[in-house]
Write a structure and sequence with these properties.
The protein has 107 residues and is α+β, with helices and mostly antiparallel strands. 59% of the residues lie in helices and 13% in strands.
Length: 107
Amino acid sequence: MNKDSAVTIFESLASGVRLDIFRLLVRAAPHGCVAGQIAIELGIPPTNLSFHLKALTQAQLLTVEQEGRFMRYRANIELMDELVNYLTAECCSGVSAPPISDATEDA
């Protein structure tokens, strides 16, 4: 993952509605949910939902598959794993951080 990809993902998740959608789909993994089910569970009007689903799909946070006349959305958990790995790749530069209790005593 590169910086531009990470920024795109964070921008997409900066919306509370989109974050709720992504978290719902993580809980529904691996089967995902159809759009109507997402709208009902989160109380989002269908027109608003389609806008947010499109943004999440363009950021590659969701995959979508047509099932008859329905669209099934799934969280791209592998991409989220890549993001977490990107964020923590240089954690502490290989040096163990002091325990939190030690850090607060020095303050």
